[in-house]
Amino acid sequence: MRHFAAVCEEQHFTRAAEYLGITQSGLSASIRALERDLDAQLLLRTTRRVTPTPTGRLLLAEAQRILAAADGLRELVADDQSVRGTLSLGTEQCMGVVEAVPLLHRYRALHPEVTLNLQQEATGELLAQVRAGRLDAALVAGTLREGAGVRVLRITEEPMMLLSAPDHPLDSGDVLARLAHEEYVDLHPGWGARDCADRAFADFGITRRVALQVNDVYTLLDLVHRGMGVAVVPRPVLDKPQAGGLRSTALPGGTRWAVGLALPGGTRPSAATRAFVELLRAEHPMHDPDS
Q: Which end of the chain is more exposed for a tag (fewer CB within 10 A), N or C?
């Protein structure tokens, strides 16, 4: 069942085999055996992707329920004296508010028997993976509208700022009028800061031209230093040494960049996940909207 669910979620045998830590041939044999046992075709295979048949979709829903129950039973009988299992954590670039690497280093020192998996992605993708049960938790940022299947423990909120080259002031005259004519450097859609900027400009009724899109804040700052465009960033970015010398001014409006920890909604976290939440809460007080 777990093999079948992984193939459906990845829509690809090779990626599913890598995720499961088995060979592709072994995974294919497992799926064939399942189809033979059930006397039904469960997957449609093409050269580009694998999708469940109508029968397969019915089985997938039940398989996910069974696997969740099995994981819960495994947790129930786990040794209460030590935290074991696996922690699959996702993280966005949290811009200096919460850094995953030192946090995981401290976590491993406290819980050496836990297997750690770390994945860095945009917040949009991280929330999708938490919702699908592929990640136990994720450090996310942006507007943080939760949606079904996810709850977010909020850590902090920060204002958005405009950054420009030293010889390119933005704080004189009508700021909004100037913003309509600028070119921008930004992260790709789905990253938290980009989503906040897009929301703010939609509220302004301004269509901005994002000329340069990057995947990390350090490249973004370098491009702004070189006068390649204006950036819209959360306030903590200004504390980075690489932002030194840049001009900054507050972005008008009320859009706030939030940082939080996303957890699957409606399920009890594993012991490994609860231990991570406890460590994070000790360093960063969190607000649970459901509490």
A: C
